[in-house]
Specification:
Length: 422
């Protein structure tokens, strides 16, 4: 049976609808509601396995902007707790943090009975240990104090921000091993930016036996589509297939851009009292996103393409890099840039015409906008900040640098090979 048609929008409906759109499309903050979270079934399964098994922990890692924090936030709501109580706490690290300061953040929120000078009181754990630095044995002792009816989960986010000589990561590795050896049911989830666990725990490979390594790639096209579909259904809106596909492709696997583009497109449609989002609304959203709060991306982009030489091709080559087919880690080869470069320039080109530019994009003068790995003659590149890819694509569209043929590839899945399926 078909659902009855939704009532037409009226001007008086807009204030509340605009507010709902702002609540559901959240490009600046992590997702906290499990029913709005999209995809990531494999990663969710791995995290649940770690929580379920006493003495097992998890390390969640990947590029910036792929949704690691959102997944760690909703973990408390997806653990099948039955009669047990999920105790979920998350703290973010900063460059000045140490093992002691990180655990004190958690201990400020934890209390227990404490006996001192013949009297007993309920005290914060941070106060109990205020006279000395916290050690691994202290954390182990407190973790052992949880009831079997508790499911404690401690999320340590932004672990890559710690700027010491590796002491903190060594102490956390020792803590994880100690908790595992004792079979303590508390779970530590380390979250950080990196291509591998080794980047977060250099020299501490021994924790592999007691941790679940959870790589977080960019989102698939299906997962990005799920973000759009869930929110529009909640709002009572629909979207044209071409418009939906365009948002997905432009987002390049990064959920924050689905939120940015989806929000602005929804606002444009509803402001005109329409419940159906069109491709024109998405084109409008590109302009709004570029005008919005992306100053850091804008500055990095301008530094990368600046030249006082007439006819320089930095802008065109950087756009071609954003269009190049890449692997799951976002890396592309110099050869992969050639076809997009020819489409942007509208004529045959050679790799030699931009090879030196790629090396410059990896240097300080152009803000190291590209990262490089491998050996000479087999170099591979990727954008240092993944968020730069959608920005450059949208800038190319706004500046009229992408041909009509290439724009068509933003609409139809079967023609989307020019844009990497990351």
């Amino acid at each position: 049976m078909k659902s009855p048609p939704l009532p037409k929008l009226r001007p008086e409906d807009l204030p509340s609808l605009f507010f709902e759109i702002g609540q559901l499309f959240t490009p600046s903050t992590p997702i906290r509601l499990a029913d709005l979270f999209a995809g990531r079934l494999r990663q969710i399964g791995q995290l649940l396995d770690a929580v379920a098994e006493p003495g097992r922990h998890a390390i969640l890692y990947g590029e910036r902007g792929v949704g690691k924090t959102s997944l760690s936030q909703i973990l408390a709501n997806i653990v099948p707790s039955a009669r047990q109580s999920v105790l979920h706490a998350r703290k973010a690290c900063s460059p000045g943090d140490t093992y002691d300061s990180i655990w004190r953040k958690f201990f400020k929120d934890m209390r227990r009975q404490h006996s001192e000078n013949g009297s007993t009181r309920v005290a914060m754990l941070s106060d109990i240990y205020q006279d000395r630095s916290l050690e691994v044995d202290d954390v182990l002792r407190e973790m052992q104090g949880f009831s079997p009816n508790d499911i404690p989960i401690f999320v340590i986010d932004e672990f890559n921000e710690i700027g010491d000589d590796g002491t903190t990561s060594q102490l956390f590795a020792n803590t994880i091993k100690a908790l595992s050896d004792e079979g303590v049911n508390a779970t530590i989830v380390i979250v950080g930016v990196g291509d591998s666990v080794a980047q977060l725990f250099a020299g501490h490979g021994s924790i592999a036996r007691c941790t679940e390594e959870v790589p977080m790639p960019r989102m698939s096209r299906e997962e990005l589509g799920e973000i759009i579909d869930k929110r529009l259904k909640a709002l009572g809106l629909t979207i044209e297939p071409d418009a939906r596909w365009k948002i997905i492709i432009l987002s390049r696997g990064l959920p924050t851009y689905v939120h940015r583009l989806g929000k602005q497109a929804a606002l444009k449609a509803t402001s005109e009292l329409r419940r159906r989002i069109t491709e024109e609304d998405v084109d409008h959203s590109i302009e709004e996103v570029l005008r919005g709060s992306l100053e850091s991306l804008r500055s990095a982009y301008e530094q990368a393409i600046y030249s006082n030489q007439p006819g320089s091709l930095y802008k065109e080559i950087l756009l071609s890099c954003a269009l190049a087919v890449s692997d799951d880690g976002g890396y592309f080869t110099p050869a992969a840039v050639l076809t997009p470069f020819e489409k942007v320039r509208g004529k045959p080109m050679t790799i030699a015409q931009y090879r030196n530019h790629l090396a410059e994009f990896n240097g300080e003068k152009r803000g190291s906008i590209l990262q490089r790995k491998g050996q000479e003659r087999s170099f591979r590149y990727r954008f240092k900040d993944p968020a730069m890819l959608p920005y450059i694509l949208m800038k190319g569209i706004a500046d009229g640098m992408i041909s009509e043929d290439a724009k068509g590839m933003l609409r139809f899945p079967e023609q989307g090979q020019l844009f990497a399926d990351t």
